[in-house]
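Long-time lurker, first post. I've been practising inverse folding by hand and with some scripts of my own, and I keep getting stuck on stretches where the C-alpha cells seem ambiguous. Below is the full C-alpha cell string for one chain I'm working on. Before anyone asks, I'm not after the true native sequence, just a reasonable design that respects the backbone. If someone could post their per-position residues I'd love to compare against what I wrote down in my notebook.
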C-alpha cells in the first residue's frame, strides 16, 4: 500500500514538474512577442492622438519614463514628446485609472502646448463587455468626447460624468467605469499642465534604466531606478 502511494506521488510530482516546465517555456517564448505587439499597438495609438501634421519626430523614442506617481495611477509611466521643426507641440502621457469597475484601466492622454486635450485612448482594461467596454474606441466613440477639452478654473466642474453634474456621458448600468476614466484623464491633464516645461526639457530615458522623479510641488529631478521599482 505504501509503495503504491509513493509511486502515485512520484507520478503526480513528475507530472506537475513537466506541466510547470511547459508553462515556463511557453511564457519565455511568447512574452517578448506579446510585449512587442503591445508596443506596436501603442505606437499606432500615439499617432492617433497626435496627428502626423503636429510632429516630425519619432514619438516612441522621444520619451521620458517617470517614477511611480499617485496622480498617474501609482505606476511607472511614460511621457512621449511631440515636436515639429524643433518646436514642442504636445505631450502624450501614460496614466492608469486604478478604480475601474473590474480593475485598472490604462490610457494615454495627449495635450498640446496650450493645455488643450488633443485626444485620449484606452490601452488596456478588463471592464464588462457590453457595459464598461464602451470606453474602447472600437466599441464606442465615447472616448472622442475628450478631444479639444480644456481644464481650468472655469471648466473644472464639467470634468465629471453627467450623473455627478459634469458634461461627460455615463453608460447605462455602468457609471463607475466612465467616472474612473474621466478622473484619470483630468489628473493626467493637470499633471501635464503643471510640469509641461520640465517634461519637454528632460532628456529621453526610456531606453535606459533611469527614471525621472517628481516630488509634489517641486521640479523634476533625475534618478536611477531602484531595483524594486515597477
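-- Answer (accepted) --
I ran through it position by position. Result:
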Amino acid at each position: 500500500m505504501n509503495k503504491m502511494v509513493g509511486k502515485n506521488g512520484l507520478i503526480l510530482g513528475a507530472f506537475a514538474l513537466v506541466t510547470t516546465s511547459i508553462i515556463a517555456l511557453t511564457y519565455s517564448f511568447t512574452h517578448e512577442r506579446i510585449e512587442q505587439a503591445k508596443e506596436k499597438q501603442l505606437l499606432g495609438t500615439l499617432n492617433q492622438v497626435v496627428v502626423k501634421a503636429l510632429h516630425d519626430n519619432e514619438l516612441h523614442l522621444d520619451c521620458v519614463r517617470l517614477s511611480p506617481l499617485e496622480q498617474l495611477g501609482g505606476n511607472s509611466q511614460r511621457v512621449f514628446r511631440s515636436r515639429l521643426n524643433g518646436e514642442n507641440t504636445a505631450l502624450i502621457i501614460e496614466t492608469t485609472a486604478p478604480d475601474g469597475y473590474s480593475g485598472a484601466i490604462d490610457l494615454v492622454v495627449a495635450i498640446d502646448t496650450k493645455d488643450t486635450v488633443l485626444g485620449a485612448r484606452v490601452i488596456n482594461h478588463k471592464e464588462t463587455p457590453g457595459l464598461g467596454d464602451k470606453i474602447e474606441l472600437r466599441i464606442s466613440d465615447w472616448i472622442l468626447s475628450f478631444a479639444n477639452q480644456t481644464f481650468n478654473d472655469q471648466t473644472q466642474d464639467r470634468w465629471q460624468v453627467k450623473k455627478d453634474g459634469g458634461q461627460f456621458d455615463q453608460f447605462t448600468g455602468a457609471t463607475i467605469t466612465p467616472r474612473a476614466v474621466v478622473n484619470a484623464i483630468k489628473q493626467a491633464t493637470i499633471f501635464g499642465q503643471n510640469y509641461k516645461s520640465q517634461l519637454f526639457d528632460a532628456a529621453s530615458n526610456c531606453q535606459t534604466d533611469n527614471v525621472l522623479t517628481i516630488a509634489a510641488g517641486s521640479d523634476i529631478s533625475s534618478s536611477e531606478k531602484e531595483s524594486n521599482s515597477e
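A couple of notes from the structure itself: The beta strands are 63-65, 78-84, 87-100, 103-112, 117-124, 210-214, 220-224. Residues 96 and 106 are 4 Å apart (CA to CA). Happy to go over any region you disagree with.
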